[in-house]
Amino acid sequence: MYEHDENEVLRDVMAGLNDEVPPMPEGLHQAWMQKVEDSKTEGQKPRKQLTRFLSIAAALVFVFGGTLLTRDSLDTAVTGQPDATQTKTIAIYARRGPETETAVQDDATANSAMFTMARGADTTVHADTPAVPGQKVIRTATLLIETQDYDDSLAGIMDACTQAGGWIEHSSESVNTYSDTRTVWLVLRIPQEHLDDFLAGAGDMGRILSRTESAEDVTASYQDTRARLDTQLALMERLQALITESADLGELLALESQIADTQYQIDTLQATLNATDQQVSYATVTITLQEKQTVSLTDTRVSLSQRLGTALSLGWQSLLDFLGDAVVFLAAASPFLAIAAAAVIIIKLIRRRKK
Amino acid sequence: MTDEFTLRRAQKGDAQAFEQLVTPHEQMLWRVCWHYTRHQEDAADCLQETMLKAWKAIKSYRGDCSLSSWLYRIAATVCLDFLRKQKRLPQTESADEMAEEEGFTPVDSSPTPDEAVIRRESADNIRAAIDSLPGDMRTVIILYALQGLGYEEIAAATQTAVGTVKSRLNRARQKIAKFLAGGNISADTASDQMKGGQPNVRA
Asked: Would the CB atoms of A7 and B8 count as touching at under 8 Å?
């Protein structure tokens, strides 16, 4: 109580100080209200702008990103075919000697082969025909050729192959729908003695962008296989002689089993030698023939107006394609968007009710 | 009582609702600001800053204390910050005084009755004595003696316990008495008085 009374003294004595407080300046109320209003617009404007900007950015990212990410799968789902941006294999044929068979070459393999050839562009190797008689050398060559007269060049290659006595082991042709150019991937087998002539004539088929040749000497392994075969043949002769002389049933059975094993070895070794002989006799030539785009934006022979027209046309077509893809994407995403919109509306309603 | 609806509107960013809410406390805040600064322009600046801070912080007001206590707290903080920037606030109290605030009561070494000393003094001297107080004591003196707030209200406004408020008030009273009796609290304050000027008052 004492403390309370003493503090009361403070109130008594200082009450007079309140009388000295001047009246609040006129306009102070308006001044702080103005500050409040200013701060309101300062704080909210950038936030509103930021929110608006982020919303637009999110929508654009959603539509663009979604379209770009899903266009392939949606196109495939609708058309059941690969996308137009990818190279489509339109003609597949292969010929092996007198027989004809069909093989399917997928795009991935073709692209991979082209990539390998492109990589080999700077490592061109010229292999010579074997000089030593009996030497076994497997020769391969890879060519990347660009041409404007695609059909003539392709026909030229086919003729040259036939004239050289070779055959087409594999062939696949594709079209790039954007640049409207064709590419053919050929695997030819050319008799080794005519390989150099064939390759020399390749320059006439178009512009050679890369050329790679290699030669693998397999003489040692070939002779080794040949020696093993001779041994097995000698063994077979000996076994056959033994079986004619033998009269014991158990011995006969053992000899027959050994003859079967030896025959298997002979067949395997003979097949290896045959395959090597064929690889040695017929060199493998892989040719990628690309059709050169006749109208190019970087082609100086094309006038500026033509280039502008082409650019506009391509741009317009791309825009239409994109818009089409975007519409397809939005249609595909519409169920998800509907669910998201319903969720937002429900959350907003709940919040409003709580308030 | 705070109008709940008006408060909600203000919290949602309605400046008119905010105005409606705080205008009844405007005069009271003006007096507080003036008692701290004792300068018309400074008090006006502090009041504007107080209102701006209150506007920005109104969203965080949860009604734990009365709106007036909440506004007092903001005004006290703004004014003390202002005085600190102007270097018009004395150093904080000693360790003994801090310990006392925590509940330890030192032996009273001044036998002089505070009441008698305080009652004798003129308004100018009392004002100078208030100016010489550290920030926390000045706040409780202004709110208690000049604004007429109770201990609980001050405790709410300063976010301290009632016991702390009473302790601060008690020590503030003793310091004022000591100041008035000639035993000035700080060297700065003594120096100001020697020069005949009013301590901590801007020209």
From this structure: no
